[in-house]
Structure formats: C-alpha cells, structure tokens
Amino acid sequence: MKNLFKFLIPFLFVVPVFGQAGFPVKVDATFFDGVKLSFNNSTALKEGGKVITQEELRSRIIREGSPWATGGGAYLKWNGQSASGGLNVGGLSSGSSVKSIYAESIVISASKTCIMQPVGWYLKSPISGLPVGSTQVLSNQIVVSAGSSVTIPLNQLITPDRAMISVAVTSVIDQDPRVIFPQISGGSVALKTDVNDGTLLGPSTPISDGTFSYLLNARNASGSASSGTITLTHQLPSDVNYISSSGAGWTVNVVNGLLTATTSDVITNAGVKSLTVILSPKTAIYAGIAGFGYQADIDVNYDAPPIVWNGTSITAGTGVTNYTASYPYLIRNWIRDVKNVKTRVVNKAISGTSSVTHESLRAFSNRYDFADAPFAAVMEHGINNSAQAVATSVSVDNMKAYVKQMKAQGAKWVFIFAPYPTGNAPLEALNATLSTALSAGVASLNDPKVRYVIETRSMWNPVTQDATYTTDQIHLTDAGNAKVFEAFVSHITTNSLF
To answer: In sequence order, which residues have a C-beta less than 8 Å from that of residue 256 and are 6 or more positions away?
Structure first.
C-alpha cells in the first residue's frame, strides 16, 4: 500500500477548482489544447479583438446550436504500455465536418482502478485532416477507481481544424508490476533495484494481445564489485499470469505470485544485471469516454451579424469533405473579403427535413428567433419538398412565413435558392414546377431585398453532369458546393446588390 500510495501521488490533484456559475476559475490554454484559447469567469477572447463574456458565448451556443452528446468505450487487455503510449479507449467526434463543438465536459470511466491519459487537441489541416505539428497535447494523468467515473470540465470550443479528444489507459493498478517496487539483498555490497531503468513509470514492452514484458534491474553503485549470491524479489500484481522470465545467470521461481530470482554472477561497480519478465493480465477491463455539450457553427465566437441558413442536409454539409468547401462558408468569406461585410454563419439546416418541418420549428420552437439582427437569411428547400410531396402552395406559404420573420428581425437581405438540379427525372420535373411557384411567391412580396436566386436552378446539366456535382443525385460534392457559391456570386454581381 505504501508503494501504491507513492505511485498515485502525482495523479491525485488534477481536478480544476471551480468558481462562480460552475465555470473553472482558469483553464490554461495549453492544458488540453495547443492553441491560445483561454477562458476564465469573465471573458472569452474572440477574433477581431472583441470580447464577450463566457456566459454570453455559452448562451449564444445554447440558443443557436443543438445539444451534443457522444461516447464510446472498449474492452481491453492492458499490454503494459505507460504514459509513452497506452491503450486507446476511443475518442469523441463532432459527427460533422462543418460544425464546431462546445464541449462542456467529458466523463471517463473504468471497470477496474486504472490510470487514464486524456490526449488533447492539436491543430490539423482542414484540407487534409493531418496534424499541423508533431505532437498532441497531453493533460495530467487521472486515476479512475473501479466501477466509477471522473468528470473533467472543459468549457471549450473545438473547431474542425482541431483534433478531438481521446483517452488511453496507461496503467491498470492490479495488473501493473511497476506499482510494487522490487527488493534486493546479498551480494556483499549495497545494491539497488528498479523497474525499467530507474523510472517507476517507464514504459514496458507489448508483445501480443495483453502480453507484455518488463525489466527488473539489479544495479551496483557501491564503488566495488559484488560477490556471493544476490537475491531479487518482486511481488507480482494480483490480476496477472506469470508467463516466463529470462536473463543470463538468473534462476527464477514464482510461488503464490512472489517472484524470486537469484544469481551468483559478479556485478561490477556501476554495472547492471537485468531480468526480463513476461506477464499477461487475467481479465480484461472496460473503459469508456463520453462527451457532453453543444454543436454550434464554426464562427459562433465571432461577434458579427449572422447569415441564417434554413435548409436540408445539402446545406447542412452532407457530401462535402470539410467546412472550407461548403457553400455557406464560401459565401461568408466572399461577402467578407470582396464586399467588406463581416458576418458569421448560423446554419439551421437539418438532414431529411422539408420546409414543413422548419415552419413548425419556426412557429412553435423559436428556432429562428435571434438576439442579433441577421445580415441575411437564406432558404434552400427543393428536393425534399418534392420528394416528400409537399404541396406547392404549402411550400410557398412556408417560404413567405420565413421571409416575414427574418425581415421582422431586421434581416437586410433574404435569399430564396431555387431548387438544385437533380439527375432523378421525376424529382427534377417536380422541382421545375416548385421553382416557378417559389419565384412567383417571391415576386408577390414586392421587396427588392427579398431575392429569388434563379441561378441555382441551372447550375449544371442534370442528365450529363450529375455525377460530377452530386454524390447520389441529391447531396453535393465539393464541386457542387462551389457551383452553388458561383451561382450566388453571379446573382449578386449581375444585380449589383450590396
């Protein structure tokens, strides 16, 4: 127990101190990530040098985002790796290449007492997904008691250009031979012993599934050579099987888990004599990780008038490789860089929905209520309205209700995108009818800042080019997203808007 206590001391004091409102008093920017993003009780630094309180940021995320919870776990046979590696339990994923996660906390759990290593975020390329740097960022190791869990508060915004957090098991206490220090006697001089070259938490070597080796070292630092019989003893952990041991000159016996090794070989001054021991765990452990928070748009922490997107899985990003190729962000960047208008994306699109769903959410769930007046609002509903047999008149009414609310909230512009081309001939015919009705509906509003973007109707030939611009006659490839962006730019420039 004394040795176990010494082993655990470095890991016991790792839970952040809490201040008012349940937020950590300080989260070091390098504690979980390698990016200068630091929160405290009062402020959160943001792009452009502006500052909002963390409570305001969280409130915006709750209002504009959606709840996020994910997790996973695995049954593992610990193979002896330590802090240099460890058995990967799994990681947390946002489930989207075009969304950020505001991670409030993670929970790690284990069926046996173990030490777990959270691996934090490093920057990665949004294009290739590969790290932009050589290392991940490790937090302090954390002791998890058998059958229990540890909650780690985060309150951090994780963008798609940062890798998500993962957790590895670095030690299982009743399977780790480094927990109990070996003893040595004899040899006529003062000898020392250690595990793995003097480092109690040094790495051991995995051999196969759940089988690993480690070194017991007899070390002579006495100033003269040893003589006589040297006896080295090591109490093996309770939950391992002894497989074998090897080392020139050593005789080994194991009785009731106590390994006794003897040698009469001379150990010269400053010399070391090693014994390799191979063990395997008797039982597997279950370790898990879960994350809780909110899914939000990438630039949610940027204080600028939003562009609000109402649409289907196409606008939500299904089919695109990452957010840098998705048309909501291509359009945002163009408006910023070319038109000198700073905006941010609020993407309310939902996979599988038609405008009927969004009208219900608008009317009864406050989905399209915003504290900030939008710079623009966009609606994309074509293929799902046609596929789900939404009556044309209902589609037009839903469009008008959305326009009315966005204008009432101060939106400077509202853009209704014409249904996109599709290689599905029956749906393409329905889209053509819907497009005519939506165009007439927009015209009836007689508002020059409510625009029907007819250019998205003819972006490509659906018969000959559908495979280039869609993945399945519906969802857009990166090239298809670029076409939507080009159609929008064409509409703006042709009509000399803003």
So the answer is: none
**Domain layout of the chain by residue ranges:** 2-174+285-293, 175-281, 304-494
Q: What span, in angstroms and rounded, lies between the C-alpha atoms of 263 and 232?
A: 9
Q: How far apart are CA 335 and CA 330, in angstroms?
A: 9
Q: Which backbone phi and psi does 150 adopt, to 5 degrees?
A: -130, 130
pLDDT at 217 over 70: yes
Q: Where does 175-281 sit in CATH, by number? A: 2.60.40.290
Question: What's the Cα-to-Cα distance from 491 to each of 111, 478, 497, rounded to whole Å?
Answer: 60, 20, 8
Q: How long is the chain?
A: 498
Do 230 and 262 touch, CB atoms closer than 8 A? yes
Give the integer Cα–Cα distance in Å for 120 and 133: 13
Gap between the Cα atoms of 213 and 216, Å rounded: 10
d(CA 498, CA 496): 7
Cβ neighbors of 310 (< 8 A, separation 6 or more) are: 348, 349, 355, 358, 368, 377, 378, 379, 380, 381, 402
SS3 215: strand
Token output for 29: 């920017």
In 92-135, which ranges are E strands?
Answer: 100-110, 114-119
User: Model confidence over 126-185: pLDDT tens digits?
Assistant: 666 666 666 666 667 889 999 999 998 878 778 777 777 788 888 899 988 877 878 888
- Report the distance separating Cα 397 and Cα 387, nearest Å: 18
Helix ranges (H only) for 365-477 are: 383-387, 392-408, 425-445, 466-469
Q: Is 304-494 in the same CATH topology as 175-281?
A: no
Amino acid 99: pLDDT: 87
Cβ atoms of residues 225 and 266 within 8 Å: yes
Strand pairing partners for 186?
Answer: 230
- pLDDT tens profile 428-481: 999 999 999 999 999 999 999 999 999 999 999 999 999 999 999 999 999 999
Topology of domain 304-494, CATH? Rossmann fold (3.40.50)
How far apart are alpha carbons 480 and 468 in whole angstroms?
Answer: 8
* Separation of alpha carbons 321 and 97, rounded Å: 7
- Residue 14 corresponds to which amino acid? V
User: Which strands sit side by side in the sheet containing 87-91, from one edge to the other?
Assistant: 87-91, 166-172, 114-119, 142-144
